[in-house]
Amino acid sequence: MKKSILAAGVALALGAGVASTAFAQVKPEILVKQRQAVMTLQGKYLGPIGAMLKGAAPYNADVVALNATFLENLARMPWDGFQASTEGVKSAAKPEIYKNMAKFKADADALEAATVKLGAAARARDEAGVKAAFGGVAKACGSCHDDFRVKQ
Question: pTM for the full model?
């Protein structure tokens, strides 16, 4: 009986600790690091597809499908890291993001939609569809970078 009460107490204490941690405010610096990590991963998975489509590497439908699926998921991830609290943190993000959040959100939505098309074409093993969809992803990336990323 004492062991079960002790176990229940420990579980309750741990649960309370996890819940309070989950609701704690994330530091702006951490948000920036997280969104930068997602963008780095997007480049990691987009690059090989681009190389294959340019003929710089042999086309591998399995790799394209895997990478496109990763991209489809990654495209949804960085946006919550662009909170107003991150505006003063050193990064390649232009201040225009926080002044024109509607356009930034539209660009984010365009990237998400484009990666869905790329993922579907890649999983269908449709190389022509991948080529067409890849252009949409590249355009969405470029549009957002042109408007909202400091040139480095």
Answer: 0.81
**What is the Cα–Cα distance from 121 to 134, expressed in whole angstroms?**
10
Residue pLDDT, tens place only, 65-114? 999 999 999 999 999 999 999 999 999 999 999 999 999 999 999 999 99
Residue labelled with tokens 């943190």: 89
Comparing C-alpha atoms, which of 147, 34, 53 is closest to residue 101? Answer: 147
31 touches 81 (CB < 8 A): yes
**CATH class of domain segment(s) 26-148:** mainly alpha
Domain residue ranges in the chain: 26-148
d(CA 18, CA 12) in angstroms, rounded, equals: 10
**Which one, of 89, 86, 91, lies nearest residue 36 by Cα?**
91
Under a CB-based contact definition with an 8 Å cutoff, are residues 13 and 20 in contact?
Answer: no
In this structure, what token pair is assigned to residue 109? 């939505």
